[in-house]
Every structure is written in C-alpha cells, then in structure tokens.
Design goal:
Layout (H helix, E strand, L loop, with lengths): L2 H20 L3 H9 L3 H33 L1 H21 L3 H14 L3 H11 L5 H26 L6 H20 L19 H9 L5 H14 L1 H14 L3 H30 L1 H21 L3 H13 L3 H10 L7 H31 L10 H17 L2
Helix pairs in contact: 1-6, 1-7, 1-8, 2-3, 3-4, 3-5, 3-6, 3-16, 4-5, 4-6, 4-8, 6-16, 7-12, 7-15, 9-16, 10-15, 10-16, 10-17, 11-16, 12-13, 12-14, 13-14, 13-15, 13-17
Length: about 400
C-alpha cells in the first residue's frame, strides 16, 4: 500500500472510528446537557442526527468542487483538521447550543469522502478502481468494529473522553497527511470553482446532464436508501423479534463488520476482474436483496445471521458502481462527481431513518395482523431490485 493511499485509507477509517467512538456516548451527553429528560434527549438527538445528514447533503458538492479547484490534498488535510477541532469543541461544549454547532461542523468536515474518492480515481487505472474502492470499504468496516469498542474503554475516564480521543485521531491524521500525502491532481488538470456546480441542485444537474452516469447515480441512491434500513431498524427489529440483548447485538454487529471487511478487502478485486463491473454490480444488488429478504422472514436469530453472508456480498455493488461512474467523467470532474453522489447519500441518510422506522412501527402496530415485522427489509429488497433495473438503462 503506497503512503498516499494509506493516508486516504486511514482518513476514511478514522472518520468511521471517530464517529463510532462518540456514537455510544453522544445520546447520554445530550441527555446530560438537556437536563436529564430521556424524552427530551431523544428529540434533540433526532434533530442533531438530521442536521448532521443535512450538512453532508449541502457540503459534499462544495468539498468535491473545491478539490477539483485546489487539489485533493488541501481539502483532505483541512477536513481532518476541521474534524479534530470540532470534536474538541464537542468535548468542552457547555450547552446544547455549542453541541449543535459541533454537529454542524462535523457534518461539513466529514464530507471529505468526496475528496478521498476523487483521490482514488486520480491515482488508480480504471480497471483497478473497483478493488481500491473495495479497500475503502475495509476502512469503513474497520471503523465500524473499532469505534464502539474503543468508546467503551475510553468512556471509563469520563463521558467526554471519547470526544477527546476522536479529536486526537483526526488531528494526528491531518499532521500525517501534511508530511506524507502528495497531491494527486496536477495544476493543469484542475477546474475553476463555480458555485452553480457546488450546491446540491447544481450537483444533481451535473448528473442529469450526463446520460452515461445518471442512471448509475440513481441506482446508487436507491442502493444507499436500502442499505440504511439496517442501521435504522436493526436494534429495534432484532430486540422485538428475537429478543436479543445488548451483548448479542454487539457480537452480531461485529460479525457484520468482519464479513464486510473480508469481502471488500479480499474478494471485491478478484470478483470484479472475473465478472466485469456490470455483472459484479448486478450480483451485488441481487445478493443484497436476498439478504434483506432473509432478514425479513427468518423465523430465528440463527437464520437471520445467514442474511449477513448475502449482505456481505452486497459489498460488490458500491465499488463496481464507483468504478463505472469514475471512468465516465473527465479528470477535472471527479470531485464534482463524488460531491454529487455525496449529496444523494445525504438525502438517503435523511430519508431512511424516518421511512424505515415508520414502516417498522406500522408493521408491529396497525398492520400487526400481517405478521410481518420485517416489512422494512422487504421494502429495502424492492429498492435494490429497482436499483438493479435502473443501472441497466
């Protein structure tokens, strides 16, 4: 692994680790600052989560366009620096207002994935991009596993200690990038910054104006919407249907992370080379849909875990999609492409929690007679079927 790719890998991993470190303690900190009311804390926590996703929706195109203008290195280092300062702010926040400001800044600076993905497209030949984007998936899985584990250890030193750890990791990564990371986009391949391309509407128009990538981008949006059914309802669903406790939930989530890392790190490159990007994309969507249906209808917790195998191979979809889309735009537009896709991800992240939690509430409430508490996963499977059809246009 080259030092440059190692930095991008570590950037994505640290983003996920930092998020995972603060996630278990963040609701408790909200409750503490709010006055101890669980109901009030839940309301504020929902608002903060929505604001975080909204900032990603708004600023992913900005950071993508800035990386096309000033280079990927500058944006990546500044994003890490900003994220570190933000976590420090949240570590000392004396009120909900300051904590809210921290979530706003975190949503902006965590949009650095746009620049990270553009960096990979800059330095990787098209026929090897799926494998590299798969490696970024390993970074996500690594953060998914390490973050909550580190949080449990560090939180013993205080409720705000995980925020200090996250800040330290981000600031050290910015320092590492300053000394190690070379620029991937030479001056002659840079594009001028235009505000009309750096806001969500402009970024979506950027996609619509390119028929070769618009269907793929829409397929990616449907896929992300389906994917987010899991973080939105996993704990609620498994606790309700299989009576899993916190320990079981934690072990299964760890298994999800490990399975994802194996597929993304060891198999994506080989399978995409064998199947080709289009067929690998279809295989990923089909495998994901099967996994979602297993989740929906599995009568026992053991059979539910079988779905994890299928959803692990769903990990073929995003690297294949990235390889296909990045090969269809110019080098000067990679940041805009990633920013536009980041905006779509932000929309999915804002929509999915409301959609799937309401579907679950409906399934165990007014529609309880249907005996289908897994309704959210059935809908997710339908979204993946629609994604597969959309990507073929």
């Amino acid at each position: 692994m080259s030092p440059a790719f190692a930095f991008v890998f570590i950037t994505v991993a640290i983003d996920m680790v930092a998020l995972g470190v603060v996630m278990p303690v963040f609701p408790e900190l909200v409750a503490q600052l709010q006055g101890g009311s669980t109901a009030g804390a839940a309301t504020y926590y929902g608002i903060f989560s929505a604001v975080f996703a909204a900032m990603q929706f708004l600023f992913a195109p900005v950071l993508g366009a800035l990386s096309d203008r000033f280079g990927r290195r500058t944006v990546l280092i500044l994003s890490n620096l900003g994220l570190g300062i933000d976590y420090l702010l949240m570590a000392v926040a004396p009120s909900l207002g300051w904590l809210f400001l921290g979530r706003v800044v975190a949503g902006i600076t965590s949009s650095s994935y746009s620049a990270a993905a553009a960096y990979i497209a800059d330095v990787t030949p098209p026929d090897h991009r799926a494998a590299r984007f798969g490696a970024l998936g390993v970074a996500f899985g690594l953060g998914f596993i390490l973050g909550p584990s580190l949080s449990g250890v560090v939180a013993a030193y205080g409720l705000r200690a995980p925020f200090v750890l996250s800040a330290t990791l981000s600031l050290l990564n910015a320092l590492y990038g300053w000394f190690v990371l070379p620029e991937s986009l030479p001056a002659e391949r840079r594009a001028p910054f235009r505000w009309q391309n750096a806001h969500p509407i402009g970024s979506l128009q950027f996609l619509r104006a390119r028929p070769a990538i618009f269907p793929l981008a829409m397929a990616g949006f449907l896929s992300m919407l389906a994917h987010d059914s899991l973080p939105s309802t996993f704990v609620l669903y498994t606790s309700y249907r299989y009576h899993w406790d916190e320990r079981t939930v934690g072990l299964v989530l760890g298994g999800v992370g490990v399975a994802s890392m194996i597929v993304q790190g060891a198999l994506v490159g080989r399978l995409v080379a064998w199947l080709g990007e289009r067929r690998a994309l279809t295989a990923g969507f089909v495998s994901g849909a099967i996994g979602m249906l297993v989740f929906a209808f599995a009568p026992t917790g053991g059979l539910y875990c079988l779905g994890i195998v299928f959803t692990a191979f769903y990990g073929l979809a995003n690297p294949s999609l990235q390889a296909l889309t990045t090969s269809r735009v110019a080098a000067t537009e990679q940041g805009q492409l990633q920013g536009a896709q980041g905006s779509l991800t932000g929309i999915a992240s804002m929509t999915a929690p409301l959609l799937f939690t309401q579907l679950f509430a409906l399934a165990i409430g007014p529609l309880a007679g249907w005996h289908l508490p897994g309704l959210p996963f059935v809908v997710a499977a339908l979204f993946l079927g629609a994604a597969m059809l959309t990507a073929r246009h």
